[in-house]
């Protein structure tokens, strides 16, 4: 049986190489969106011209979003459980994930390379402090991750079912899922998650998505001024 994931050389690595995201599949092009917008005229084009670029911009600026829904992307995402929790709040994506009810192998955990401190004013924010000595705390997190795996294995060895035993695995456990989304809802996701208000970890994935899709939507990437190098 083939592995469900795409080869590592096609991933964009995030979270210090511990997480990744790759583009599995895509349906449509920018021309598809333009064709969808002009479907009432019964005319199709395969290549974009200047007028089409202007139309694309018009669609975005005037929130005429349904033509953008005809362009669809599927990603494979490897991230910590807490990032997955935030991601799956986006209901307009379709998701499938490797289940811990079926597999107990390949369990790995995210250990942050740097720790941020709690922001005093905004409870949802964190601050970097280069003077903050975090090495011992990082070590403690790593030990906690490993301990949670040991307890999980102990429970399995004691005959406990996977679906209950998995409850002891830490929020840093890495999960892999597929996510499929149309361009309109993906742009919405990127606006919310490549933002200074979003948690740093999910933001790294949003930035990686821009890199993955920019070659397929060059005019839209240019319109938003994405920096993808
Ligand atoms: C910085 C940040 C902080 C957050 N903090 C919290 C928090 O503290 N607590 C918390 O619970 N969540 C929090 N969230 C999650 C947030 O509330 C949204 O659930 C999440 O961002 C998904 O956004 P969405 O609903 O617009 O996206 P999607 O679910 O992808 O939906 C896209 C759009 O489709 C429409 N839509 C989808 N479903 C419905 C529906 N059922 N009814 C009507 N319209 C619908 C809406 O227009 C919606 O904007 C936070 C998100 C961010 C970005």
In short:
The protein is an alpha+beta fold and 229 residues long. It has eight helices and seven strands.
List the helices and strands and how they pair.
Elements: E1 12-14, E2 19-27, H1 30-37, H2 50-61, E3 72-80, H3 81-87, E4 94-97, E5 117-118, E6 126-127, H4 135-157, H5 162-165, E7 174-182, H6 183-193, H7 200-213, H8 218-224
Antiparallel strand pairs: 1-2, 2-3, 3-7, 4-7, 5-6
Helix pairs in contact: 1-2
If helices are DSSP runs of H or I spanning 4 or more residues, what is the number of helices? 8
Order of strands across the main sheet: 1-2-3-7-4
Structural class: alpha+beta
User: DSSP strand (E) fraction?
Assistant: 15-25%
* Corresponding CATH architecture of the largest domain: 2-Layer Sandwich
Distance between the termini: 36 Å
Order of helices and strands: EEHHEHEEEHHEHHH
From the alpha-carbon coordinates, what is the Rg to the nearest angstrom? 21 Å
The tally of beta strands, per DSSP, is 7
- Poorly predicted segments: none
Helix content: 25-40%
Global shape: globular
Specify the CATH class of the largest domain: Alpha Beta
Question: Which ions, cofactors or small ligands are bound in this entry?
Answer: flavin-adenine dinucleotide
Question: How is the biggest beta sheet arranged?
Answer: 5 strands, antiparallel
Number of individual domains: 2
CATH domain fold name of the largest domain:
Gyrase A, domain 2
Mean pLDDT: 91
């Amino acid at each position: 049986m083939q592995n469900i994931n795409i080869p590592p050389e096609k991933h964009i690595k995030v979270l210090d190489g511990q997480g990744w995201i790759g583009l599995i599949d895509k349906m449509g092009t920018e021309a598809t969106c333009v064709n969808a917008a002009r479907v009432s005229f019964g005319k199709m084009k395969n290549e974009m011209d200047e007028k089409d670029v202007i139309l694309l911009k018009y669609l975005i600026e005037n929130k005429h979003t349904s033509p953008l829904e005809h362009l669809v992307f599927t990603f494979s995402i490897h991230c910590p459980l807490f990032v997955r929790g935030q991601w799956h709040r986006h209901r307009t994506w379709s998701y499938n994930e490797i289940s811990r009810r079926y597999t107990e192998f390949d369990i790995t955990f995210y250990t942050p390379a740097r720790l941020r401190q709690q922001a005093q004013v905004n409870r949802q924010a964190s601050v970097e402090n280069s003077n903050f000595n975090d090495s011992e705390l990082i070590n403690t997190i790593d030990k906690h991750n490993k301990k949670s795996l040991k307890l999980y294995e102990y429970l399995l060895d004691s005959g406990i079912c996977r679906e209950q035993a998995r409850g002891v695995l830490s929020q840093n456990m890495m999960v892999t899922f597929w996510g499929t989304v149309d361009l309109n809802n993906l742009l919405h996701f990127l606006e919310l998650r490549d933002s200074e208000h979003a948690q740093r970890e999910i933001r790294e994935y949003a930035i990686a998505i821009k890199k993955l899709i920019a070659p397929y939507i060059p005019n839209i990437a240019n319109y938003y001024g994405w920096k993808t190098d």
